[in-house]
Design brief:
Blueprint: H1 5-9, H2 23-34, E1 37-45, E2 51-59, E3 63-68, E4 74-79, E5 82-87, E6 92-97, H3 102-107, E7 117-120, E8 127-133, E9 142-149, E10 157-165, E11 171-181
Antiparallel strand pairs: 1-2, 1-11, 2-3, 3-4, 4-5, 5-6, 7-8, 8-9, 9-10, 10-11
Length: 202
């Protein structure tokens, strides 16, 4: 199951200044500030070519949850301070500071995306790609978030997913579908059971 770690580990990027803010980055910032909540289905494909599915739930400020399909004993939850990776099969819990990650931008509308990201050519005028990378910490890897231009979505952009590349070259692709914005989301969605205490899955 540890092949799933790139989803959590490679998003732990710091936030150096990479480039002057571009109009496209400003549009991404506006989208992130306009989307107070989001729910979506996700499909995650790892280096082995296997795909796992699940549900993504986001509530700003600070909270995000990746609930994997039935039978996968993995859960990833952000509580505003940390991104927690829980493996119920081995009762293991790992944490990363969410404030220092690109996903931190998804859950913190006050964060300045221009501090750690740049626009990269997509080859499609209807697609906007934004890459996050810390040159001082290449061990954190890279993440490229992909947006589609959609007039019906907040600020005219729809988050389609992202591609994470760790320092060993392992690629993890996450694709989103069924995105819904600014829908009611209970705070209880972001609670989880600690397997080190209970041995039960949230």
């Amino acid at each position: 199951m540890h092949r799933l770690l790139p989803l959590a580990a490679t998003i732990a990027l710091a936030a150096p200044a990479l480039a002057a803010p571009a109009p496209e980055l400003q549009q991404v910032q506006e989208h992130l500030r306009a989307a107070g909540t989001m729910t979506a289905a996700f499909a995650q494909t790892g280096r082995d070519g296997k795909t796992l599915t699940g549900t993504l739930t986001l509530k700003k400020p600070g909270r995000i949850r990746f609930q994997y399909q039935k039978g996968v004993p993995i859960l990833i939850v952000g509580d505003g301070k940390a991104l927690t990776f829980i493996d119920y099969s081995v009762r293991q819990v790992q944490r990363w500071p969410i404030a220092n990650s690109p996903l931190g931008v998804l859950v913190d509308p006050s964060r300045d995306i221009a501090r750690f990201a740049k626009v990269v050519p997509s080859g499609n005028p209807n697609v906007l790609s934004v890459e996050g990378y810390d040159a001082k910490h290449p061990e954190y890897g890279r993440i490229t978030m992909i947006f589609a231009r959609d007039a019906a979505a907040p600020a005219g952009l729809m988050l389609q997913g992202w591609v994470a590349l760790d320092s060993q070259g392992n690629r993890t692709t996450v694709r989103l579908s069924e995105q819904k914005f600014n829908v009611p989301v209970s705070d209880g969605t972001f609670r989880w059971n600690d397997p080190r205490k209970t041995g039960r899955r949230s």
